[in-house]
Amino acid sequence: MGDVDPAFIQPAQHRPKLSFTEAHGIPLIDLNSSSYAAMGDLVAEIGAACKNWGFFQVINHGVPPETRRKLEEAARRFFAQPPEEKRKVKRDEVNPQGYYDTEQTKNVRDWKEVLDLTVKNPTILPASLDPADGELLQLVNRWPENLPELRPLVTREAFEEYAGELEKLSHKLLRLISLSLGLQENRLSGFFNDHTSFIRLNHYPPCPIPHLALGVGSHKDSSALTVLAQDEVGGLEVKRKADGEWVRVRPTPEAFIINVGSITQVWSNDEYKSVEHRVIVNSEKERFSIPFFFNPDHSVMVEPLKELVTEQSPAKYRPYNWGKFHANRKLSNFKNLGVDNIQIDDFRLQE
Length: 351
Known about the structure:
Layout: E1 21-22, E2 28-30, H1 39-52, E3 55-59, H2 65-79, H3 83-86, E4 98-100, E5 104-105, E6 108-109, E7 113-118, E8 123-126, E9 136-139, H4 152-180, E10 198-204, E11 216-219, E12 225-230, E13 236-239, E14 246-248, E15 256-260, H5 262-267, E16 277-279, E17 287-294, E18 301-302, E19 320-321, H6 322-331
Parallel strand pairs: 1-14, 2-3
Antiparallel strand pairs: 3-15, 4-7, 5-6, 7-10, 8-9, 10-17, 11-16, 12-15, 12-17, 13-14, 13-16, 18-19
């Protein structure tokens, strides 16, 4: 095993198989609604994908390919720098935004390095986990300043252009999901006026122990939606709802991969469930990806929507404050809070 840190070694039950099943059947949805006989067909397809898979891919989504390429190229240049340069924008407890390479999923270290950037700069979050404490914290982006081709302005322009396009796409998807649940088209939009969304630039270096380590361990996203750009190397695996099998999502050129986050699971009162996924590493090739985590305002109380709560289907969750939940996730990487990372199931009501 050579010099590989044991912190990367997954428990036996979580280790990936080197042979894999390709995810035939993950829906590929054309968002150009003129290709449908009626808007209702697109809405129905979105609803079926959310219900049956929790994941789908979209094409003809309106995001210019050049906008995506510019940020992908900026990410490649950033991660190609020496470690000491990347650490100049390292995250810390005061501001958990920026570069880091020590993230853990379920107490095992991920084989990756990341740069986190918030879409709104600054982004407002609670400063503490205490429900009675109303103090707020400003998350401010740290821009790489050392490389001439990564001057703050250039990186910021590429990032802000991409973030603006992804925000538009996320709102469009949110409207389609609302309609698919039988709600008013803009039912969910008001939760995102001062949203806390962020973008993560991921780099997965080649790994000498791909059978023992994971780029990201098995998890569910706590967001409302995640919109992922992955490169041609691939490595994303989804736990198929039908049989619990891990299946690989083959990269589709120019497509984005969408997954339902835990917030949408709660809003829909379990009609649409968030699905476990993970990232496999490659012994020969590095991989890059850019997830956009679409998150509501910090003040939003997340709970099943009243329109979807009935006598036959009572509320399955008690309300929780999104900002405190998100701050717990962000701050717990720096402090051992003595408990596992907060999970959506912590708010599930006993049936």
